[in-house]
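note to self — DONT lose this again. spent like an hour looking for the file last time. sequence + predicted structure for the chain T wanted, 241 res
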Amino acid sequence: MGAAAAAHAERLLVEAIDARGHARVIAATGNSQLAFLRHLVASSRVDWSRVEVFHLDEYVGLAADHRASFRRVLREHLVAPTGIQTFHALDGDGDVDAVRRTVGAALARAPIDVAFVGIGENSHLAFNDPPADFETTEPYLVVTLDEACRRQQVGEGWFASLDDVPRQAISMSVRQILAAHEILAMVPDARKAAAVAAVLTGPITPDVPASILRTHDRTTLYLDAASASMVDPQVVAGLRP
């Protein structure tokens, strides 16, 4: 799954660079993204000096050297291996409002070519937990994380206990994610199966935040056998935006 998604991403980045001289990308972290990133950074076709990366979300109050810091994960698994020069990191332990304004303004300078995202066990998109705000046009929000989201972080091994998980985060808004020209969502593992089923076959609703991806006609969802196990393949094949 990671290799297939990375091949798709590579093609999109090469096409954007060939067409406009650069590519603007939104990147996510979490365990669901690591195999994808490992394959993507191995690409020899992408001119990484022409790739500009925007950070999807980050915990509020977490130091950049904490093992769970998303900016640390992106630097280790994407920015450093490729030599990307322009990375708009979300400094969650700095002046959060200033960070939202600064990175949001950089986002607004030009369209985003592709967003790399995941889907949470509670069907969140970025850190937009249910019920998500589908209306705001703010590029970044400060959100309160629900217990299911925080328990996922413990389950993935990023934190030792629920009390260690921050209660707030900076998250790219739903509308900002949908503004990307293309969206690739990588969602492996059986623990995501119920969320995938809700996203693909239930109503499009803020109570299932990632269901909004069905309104974006250039979204590709990458699943493995485990994460797709609760969805009838014929139902998925018949889905249209």
